[in-house]
Amino acid sequence: MILEPVDATDARAVLRGLRGAVLGSGPAIALGADTPGAPPLPVEVPAGTAVVVTTSGSTGYPKRVAISRSALTVSALATAARIGEGDWLLALPPGYIAGVQVLSRALVAGREPAILAGSFRAQAFAAAASAMASSVGGVRVPTYTSLVPAQLATLLDAEDAGIRTGLSSFAAVLVGGQALPPALADRAAAAGARIVRTYGSSETSGGCVYDGVPLDGIGMRIVDGEVQLSGPTLADGYLGDPRRTDDIFRRDADGTRWYRTGDAGQIADGLLRVTGRRDNVIVSGGVNVSLDRVEHIVRGVPGLERAVVVAAESARWGQVPVVVVAEDSVVDAEGLLHRARQATEAEIGAAGRPARIDVVAEIPRLTSGKPDRRALLPRPPAG
To answer: What is this structure's pTM?
Structure first.
C-alpha cells in the first residue's frame, strides 16, 4: 500500500487522509514524516496499514509506529461500547495518536467531528462545546472530547462560568497523555466534568485502559514489574526497525502478542495502577528514586499541580530530584518546597526530597501538550 505524508498540523488534511485510510482503500498516511532523527519513510507499507505515527522522541529516539485500519476501528468501537456514542470535538493536535483516535471515532461512528483550530484557548473550547449542542428526536446527542491534563488545567484556571458549563456539557472527557494529578481531578469533578482517565500509547492505538479497566478485548498483565498489554488494538510495529519491533512486541508460547510498555505498575482487583516509567529512576545517595513517583506526590501539594520533576547532578548525592514550576503559579516558593519535602519524605524517604524549586517563565511543552522534559535538561549542579 502507498504511504502518503500528510501535514500533521492540519486537522482537516489529517481527517481527509483518515477518511480514506480507515473507511476507504487508502492510501495510508504518515504523520510527522519530517521529524528529525526518525528512520527513513518508505514509499509503501504492508496492506491494511492506515496510519504511521512518528513519536515525539521526548524520552528516546523518534519511532515510526505503523497502525492498521483494523486496530483503529476496533479501538474506536471499544471506546463507544465503554462510554457511549455521540459527537466528538478534536481539541488535541491531530498528528498524535490521541488526536488521530478522536477523528477515527467520529469516522467509524459515521459522524463529522468538530475541530478546534489553532492553539488551545479556553474561550474557543467553550464556544466549540456550545456549538455542538444538537438533538435527534428531541433527545440531546451526547458529546465527547479528549484532553491532556495541561488543557484541563487551563480550562479550570479560567474560572469562567461559561467555560465550566462547556466542560461539564460533555458526556465524558477523556484525559490521558500523562498522569492526572489528584488535585486537578478533584477540581474537575467539582466543576461538573465527567473525567475518564485513559492509559495507552501509539503502540496500542491510543487509550485502551479506561479508569484502570481495559477495554473489551484488551489483556493486561505485570511481568517483572512492567505493564504489558495485548489485544487487537496493538500496532503492527516500528517501520524500519524490526529488531526493536521484536523486542517490544513479544509473543507467548500460545501465540498471544504482548506490548512491553516500559511502565511500572500494579494490578489489584482487576484495576491497573501505573506508577511511572521503569527507566525514569535516579540513584540518590545510593537509593533508587522514581522521579515519576516524586512528581506524583509533589503534584498533590496545593500550588504544585502543574510542577515537573527532573533530575539534577549533585556532588554530594549523585543525583537529586528538582521541582520546576512556572512563575505565574508560584507565590511562596520556599513554603511550597517545604511542603513538597514533607510530602515526599513521608512517602518515599529522605532520598525523595526535592533539592530545590526552579522557577521558570513557563514550562516548555511538546505539541502534544506534555511537558518537554528534554528542554528542561541539563539542570545545573544541586547540593
So the answer is: 0.81
